[in-house]
Amino acid sequence: MQKIALIGLGAMGRPMAENLQARGFLVTAMDISPEACAGFEGAMVPSVDALQKVEAVITMLPEGRHVKDAYDNVVLPGAPAGSLLMDCSTIDVETTNALAEKATAHGFYAVDAPVSGGPEAAGKGVLSFMVGGSTEAYGRAAPLLEAMGAKCSHFGPSGSGQAAKACHNMICGITAMAVTEGFALADSMGLDLAQFYQLCCEAAAQSWIMENRCPVPGVAPGTPASNDYAPGFAAALMAKDLRLAQAAAKASGQDTPFGAEAARMFTEFAEVGGAHLDFSAIYATLRNSAKAV
């Protein structure tokens, strides 16, 4: 039975840990928050001593600074050399590459494996992983990825997974703005929004965002909009991911004007009170602004 440590029991990390347990892995779950640890048997505050016999450490944390802190203070000094270190957080490529280089120098196998699918997919064990790292490291990670997800794409060396995630999430953010504006325009012209939704789902405007994050309450049952915009994927996280995409664009010299505008709008929405709502809640701000004119 392979021994795994998973650091970060948030909306994504907890179901990932539960799926690993359900598939026969021996999981030591860790989080700095006692509230996050509650209800997960054996969960504890991250500890160097608790990592001494693990074969892999998975991190699922909010930002690059949190991952760096976990690596510097717990993971690198605690885990046995030769262990697999797999970061599933969505962070910047620069930090990812620096941590992978440090991990490799200490005798670890390192992969970056950010995810797509949100808490729903995490709970069902059908996440999509975008992976960066050596072929050997990816091979070691594969059984864990298969236990938590339905799709795994190995894009190349360290940092490639985070690069793919940045591009993917920029597309999602831009698409979300297009869907939001389309419904706002349809509403302003008096269209039946349920009928319009059905049209879009069966025509060229169809997308995952359209079907799963329709921003109008009551139009699509089961979406955050029909549940008081309970996330889903919080607007603050969308804003963060879009800013990461902009940082990647700047580093690579690629102009991304639509991505920049999506990053600006979601960041502004998060800062004025929408941070903990699903990102589709930005629709209410856009539509209300139009009605006030």
CATH C-level of the largest domain:
Alpha Beta
Main beta sheet: strand number and arrangement?
Answer: 8 strands, mixed
Order of helices and strands: EHEHEHEHEEHEHEHHHHHH
* Annotation field: number of helices: 12
Terminal CA distance reads 63 Å
What CATH architecture of the largest domain do you see? 3-Layer(aba) Sandwich
Question: Which descriptor suits the 3D outline?
Answer: globular
Amount of helix:
40-55%
> How would you state the average pLDDT, rounded?
95
Unreliable parts: none
CATH homologous superfamily placement of the largest domain: NAD(P)-binding Rossmann-like Domain
Architecture overview:
By secondary structure, the chain is an alpha/beta fold. The chain has two domains: 3-156, Rossmann fold (3-Layer(aba) Sandwich); 163-292, N-(1-d-carboxylethyl)-l-norvaline Dehydrogenase, domain 2, CATH 1.10.1040.10. The chain contains twelve helices and eight strands. It has helices at residues 13-22, 34-37, 64-78, 93-105, 118-124, 135-148, 160-188, 193-201, 208-212, 235-252, 257-274, 282-292, and strands spanning 3-7, 26-30, 56-59, 84-87, 109-112, 115-116, 127-133, 149-156. Strands 1, 2, 3, 4, 5, 6, 7 and 8 form an eight-stranded mixed sheet that branches. Strand 1 (3-7), helix 1 and strand 2 (26-30) form a beta-alpha-beta unit. The protein is globular and about 65 Å long. The model has no long low-confidence stretch (mean pLDDT 95).
